[in-house]
Amino acid sequence: MVKDLVKVYRIGTLEIQALRGLSMKVEEGEMVAIIGPSGSGKTTLLNILGGLDRATAGYVKVFDTEVTSLTPDELVEYRRRMVGHIFQTMNLIPTLTAAENIELPMIALGVPKSKRVRRVEELINIVGLRERRNHKPGELSGGEQQRVAIAAALANDPPLILADEPTGELDTATARLVVDYLSRANRELGKTVIMVTHDPAVARAAGRILRIQDGIIRADLEPLWPELATTTYADILRMRIDEVERQLVELEDELRRGELTGEQYVERQMALKRALSVFKEELHRFGMVH
Ligand SMILES: Nc1ncnc2c1ncn2[C@@H]1O[C@H](COP(=O)(O)OP(=O)(O)OP(=O)(O)O)[C@@H](O)[C@H]1O
Ligand SMILES: [Mg+2]
Q: pLDDT tens-digit profile of 231-284?
């Protein structure tokens, strides 16, 4: 999908290499999280994938479209039809209501009014904002604003959803809710979702985690359970809790068999217990949200 991607920004005589030969492959229908330090090129990658920015070199293919060889006009068309983009800094129009913000991408595509009205209703319901439909972004909470942004991204039914730090400024419970809508877009609507996040708890909602550093992919973490896509987040948490509890028992066996020093045992036990409490807390939180 992405091969040897290079992006160089030039400011005067200064050259910044944002992407240095990045390659990755995302399958249709996958949900992938991209993590990495600030300035590592995550937004740059998403903007090139979304047709907002052009690569300096390299090759990008999304579904059957060779994005890197599109003309400017074709790129506009590609953006409108193929991509739903949720931005790092919220990009809702402050003077428009939630419903109008959701309608906007359809106006850009020339969808007739009657169809737009029906679709807005549908989307408002999907993201659970019926009572907030006539609120302007300034009158909505951060989480509600992001749900409007998700609805707007889904408006033209694009196969690819790009989300840049969709939970950046949200508290954990609200972040969980927002990510759940993205997971549902992936699972129930079959969207391919590529989501940038700095939050490991958010990243775990994806089937695969790509770590980017200095403009290239440094690690590709396989999902712990291949059946991830069909299970709920709570199921995954329960599975992880079981797994960690099993590891704790195993650890004790190893100690008893003399395969570990006391120090190693304590260290690994502490790490496992920490993981266990994180998963349990997360499960508890999830239970409260739903
Ligand atoms: N329009 C631009 N002009 C010049 N340099 C840029 C531009 N956009 C990004 N950069 C530089 O490219 C590098 C990668 O930036 P990018 O925004 O992709 O990082 P990021 O991984 O999204 O970071 P963050 O986590 O802080 O959002 C940075 O060094 C940044 O300063
Ligand atoms: Mg960024």
A: 566 776 787 888 889 999 999 999 999 998 889 999 999 989 988 887 888 777
**Residue ID of nearest Cα to ligand 1 atom 30:** 39
> Where does a domain end: 230, 252, 269?
230
What pTM was computed for the model? 0.77
- Determine if ligand 1 sits within 6 Å of the CB of residue 44: yes
CB 38 less than 6 A from any atom of ligand 1: yes
CA distance 234 to 236: 5
Are 205 and 280 part of one and the same domain?
no
How far is Cα 61 from Cα 110, in angstroms, rounded to an integer? Answer: 26
Q: Which of these three, 210, 230, 250, is where a domain ends?
A: 230
- Full residue range of the structural domain in which residue 149 is found: 2-230
DSSP class of residue 112 equals -
Q: Whose CA is nearest to atom 12 of ligand 1?
A: 18
Same-domain pairing of 257 and 219 = no
Atom of ligand 1 nearest to the CA of 11: 4
